[in-house]
Amino acid sequence: MSTENSSPEKGYLDMDLLRFTTAGSVDDGKSTLIGRLMYDSKAIFEDQLESIENTSKQRGDEHVNLALLTDGLRAEREQGITIDVAYRYFATPRRKFIIADTPGHIQYTRNMVTGASTANLAIILVDARKGVIEQTCRHSFIANLLRIQHVVIAVNKMDLVDWSEETFNKIRSDFQKFASRLDNIVEISFIPISALKGDNVVDKSTNMPWYNGPTLLYHLETLYVGPDANHVDSRLPVQWVIRPHSDQYHDFRGYAGRVAGGVFKPGDDVVVYPSGFEAKVKALHTADGELEEAYSPLSVAMTLDREIDISRGDMIAKPNNPPTVGQDIDAMVCWFSDKPLNPRGKFLIRHCSKEAKALIRDVKYKVDINTLHKIEGDNQFTLNDIGRITIRTASPLCYDSYKRNRVTGSFILVDANTNETVAAGMIR
């Protein structure tokens, strides 16, 4: 008997998961698009639909405002904009989805970085009337910076340009010229849609017979997304040392954390960084019992065949492909704070499970989002600026490049005085 027939729940749990983010300028229709996706794919409950119908009537909207499904903050509903990142979950018979609806305003670019940091795919909306604008370029650059390899350019509001093929082709041509300078994006798809009316979102449009491609939902359901995790370089950042001090587990000493890459098995030779001590994996424990192998993103407690001084912030890896261990970090950062960067400021760097004091040694350049040109000699990072800096840490970090491993290659900077998160970084 097949798994699907014997246990529908098991079939759902085993379904493929796609994480995607929506981005675009203000009023491009991101929230409406997500509402349309969920509404037309029957992924919302009757009481939810009734609630947004009533709210739409109270607001005097001419139609059911599907954007209300994701715009949950009162300020968002009053202004008709997205401010915070809204996560939504839905599923079709083919795939499960986690959506991050991110803001379009330039002052909320930091929210877009947060929402897109775990995405496999980015949907970038373009208003058919406005074409490719600064925010389109900014969001595409951030998607490239965060190594989102699949991008969909959804040309929205086609109903307002009389379903013009010429308009769609011009936007596609303009974006392709810009995207030719982005190195991490593997695939770019262009889909003309009307989120308000539902054309080419879930159902094929009859208003654009010239478009022969898939609908947006079909593209999301069938897109092949390779495994995001690095299964080559074995990494276990230690979050906690488990020492029960009980008669039942008198000699137990486990090193708990979430596997950030590779595969660990009992009997494997491992090295603890930054100390360099060597040991063998004795066992891999979870709440459900011991495992024969552990891989990303499983959380495990590892026991070793000998006692070693290991503490939170250390990293367990294999001897044949060690992480880089160092105190000078070269990284691309997105500045999150309203306060400009102070080169002499005191910061904390939080990387995996490690926290260390840090200072900014050098600002190499900022990036002009529109042209992708490097602006050298300008050390003044302000809110939403993106550029390259060098950081010196008080104690060594064990890291990989962000290009190789998203988990061990990323960090945040925190103001040591106010505890405010001031920047997110991708190690080069």
Task: Write a brief structural summary.
19% of the residues lie in helices and 33% in strands. With 428 residues, the protein is an alpha+beta fold.
Characteristic terms for this protein:
428 residues, alpha+beta, Rossmann fold, Elongation Factor Tu (Ef-tu), domain 3, 3 domains, 8-stranded antiparallel sheet, 6-stranded mixed sheet, 9 helices, globular, disordered N terminus
Descriptive account of the structure:
The structure is a single chain. By secondary structure, the protein is α+β, with helices and mostly antiparallel strands. It folds into 3 domains: 12-222, P-loop containing nucleotide triphosphate hydrolases (Rossmann fold), CATH 3.40.50; 235-317, Elongation Factor Tu (Ef-tu), domain 3 (Beta Barrel); 324-427, Elongation Factor Tu (Ef-tu), domain 3. Helices cover 19% and strands 33% of the residues. It has 9 helices and 23 strands. It has helices at residues 3-6, 8-13, 30-40, 46-59, 74-79, 109-116, 134-145, 165-179, 216-222; strands at residues 17-24, 86-91, 96-101, 121-127, 150-156, 187-192, 235-237, 240-242, 254-258, 263-264, 269-273, 277-286, 289-290, 294-295, 299-304, 315-317, 324-335, 347-351, 354-367, 374-375, 386-399, 410-415, 421-427. Helix 8 (165-179) links the parallel strand 5 and strand 6 (187-192). The model is unreliable at 1-10 and 72-83 (pLDDT under 50).
